[in-house]
Amino acid sequence: MGDLEGLREEIKRMCLAGNHYSMSVWSHVDNVASNSAILAEMFGGDIDLARPMGVSHDVGAIVFGRSGENGEGHNVTGARMIAPILQRHKYSLLEIVQIQYGIIVHRGSDQNIIRKTLESRTLATADAWDHFGNMRELWNVGQRDLHKSPEDTYVWLIRKLQNDWSKVMLEARDLLLPDRDRARDILERLHAGIPVS
Ligand SMILES: [Fe+2]
Questions:
Q1: Is position 124 within any domain?
Q2: Domain residues for 76?
Q3: CATH code where residue 30 lies
Q4: How far is ligand 1, taken at its centre, from the CA of residue 116, in Å?
Q5: Of the candidates 47, 132, 147, 191, which lies 20 to 30 Å from 116 by C-alpha distance?
Q6: pLDDT of the residue at 23
Q7: Ligand 1 centroid vs 57 CA: distance in angstroms?
């Protein structure tokens, strides 16, 4: 097993130095790592794989933005970038390949992706789960970081909620449904200009 603390520190530094997102990206990455491990524990996955996968999953977006390097997608860029980083932190070749796989298939925008490992499913689920809990922050990201109009931000987030729900693993859907519904309610309020408590 590799040096998780060293990996966390390096990714945290990258998050704080990146200029595509505000500082909240580190809390997203950290939450996804924790929640992916919780889900792995609940459903019989490998926690020691779920955590570094969560920490690593958005590295392509942190450095190059959501479209990744040359528009290939931040998942593809991230899978390539993460190999030498994980190597530096003493992860084995097998662990690196498993983490790269999880990163490649974590995106929700490709509805046809089949996630073949449990840890890739807990990663995608944890990513969606954190989005459900941060609708106000995502509303701000749409306008502040992605320079969208309020209307375009609304459309973007409606689609994002749909994509996110489709990547939630079946075993976790009952658990996450109330959070998804709350996120949808908050989005409707933000769109309508109703204060969100
Ligand atoms: Fe993410």
A1: yes
A2: 4-192
A3: 1.10.3210.10
A4: 19
A5: 132
A6: 55
A7: 6
Report pLDDT for 108.
83
Query: Is the confidence at residue 19, as pLDDT, over 80?
Result: no
Could you tell me if residue 197 is inside a domain? no
For the chain, how many residues are written? 197
Confidence band, pLDDT 50/70/90 cuts, at residue 66? confident
Domain count, the chain: 1
- Going from the Cα of 28 to the center of ligand 1, the distance in angstroms, rounded, reads 7
Report which residue type is found at 119: E
Q: Residues whose CB is under 5 A from ligand 1 (ion)? A: 58, 127
pTM: 0.94
User: Ligand 1 center to residue 166 CA distance, Å?
Assistant: 15
CA of 29 to the centre of ligand 1 (A): 6
pLDDT recorded at residue 29: 96
Q: Is residue 90 part of a domain?
A: yes
